[in-house]
């Protein structure tokens, strides 16, 4: 049986068999971490947002320091931002986990939808984001995603 629920406007898929090598409580911990990470990003809470990242973080040409400088600049822009995550999946890997999801981002100046990949590493008992990658969804994938979400809402309510 598969159950969908909304947590802070984030969609999660709960089911069996997708995290066989990662203890269930750690899969839940990682999902909770991603939810709080999204909330701190959406609330532009730079202090808490920074705490989710490893000092060894990389994303494209960015390292930890340049990423935080970039995000600090973006967080200072006026207006609220909205971030929705869906199709969240956790793939175990020992002391690391790969998390993938579809991300919808909206601010007064920009909006996009794409696939995000995060690699988290567990160090000293804490999961930290060590790598981040985003790529835009194709137009066809966006239509399918939108239709799936509408159908889910109609079916649920």
Distinctive features:
157 residues; alpha+beta; Nuclear Transport Factor 2, Chain: A; 6-stranded mixed β-sheet; two-stranded antiparallel ribbon; 4 helices; 8 strands; 42% strand
Secondary structure: elements and pairs:
Elements: E1 3-7, E2 10-14, H1 24-42, H2 46-50, E3 53-59, E4 62-63, H3 64-75, E5 82-93, E6 96-106, E7 111-123, E8 126-136, H4 139-156
Parallel strand pairs: 3-8
Antiparallel strand pairs: 1-2, 3-4, 5-6, 6-7, 7-8
Describe this structure in words.
- This protein has 157 residues and is of the alpha+beta class.
- It has a single domain (3-156), classed as Nuclear Transport Factor 2, Chain: A (Roll).
- Helix content is 34%, strand content 42%.
- It has helices at 24-42, 46-50, 64-75, 139-156; strands at 3-7, 10-14, 53-59, 62-63, 82-93, 96-106, 111-123, 126-136.
- The protein has a six-stranded mixed beta sheet.
- A hairpin with a 2-residue loop joins β7 (111-123) and β8 (126-136).
- It is globular, with a radius of gyration of 16 Å.
Q: What's the pLDDT, averaged over the residues?
A: 82
Question: What is the name of the CATH architecture?
Answer: Roll
Order of secondary-structure elements:
EEHHEEHEEEEH
User: Helical element count?
Assistant: 4
For the largest beta sheet, what order do the strands appear in spatially? 4-3-8-7-6-5
Q: In angstroms, what is the radius of gyration?
A: 16 Å
Intertermini distance: 19 Å
Main sheet makeup: 6 strands, mixed
The CATH topology assignment is Nuclear Transport Factor 2, Chain: A
Percent strand equals 35-45%
The helix fraction, in percent, is 25-40%
Globally, the shape reads: globular
Number of strands: 8
- Count of discrete domains: 1
From the structure provided, what is the oligomeric state, counting identical versus distinct chains?
Answer: single chain
Backbone structural class = alpha+beta
Main CATH class: Alpha Beta
The poorly predicted ranges are: 1-21
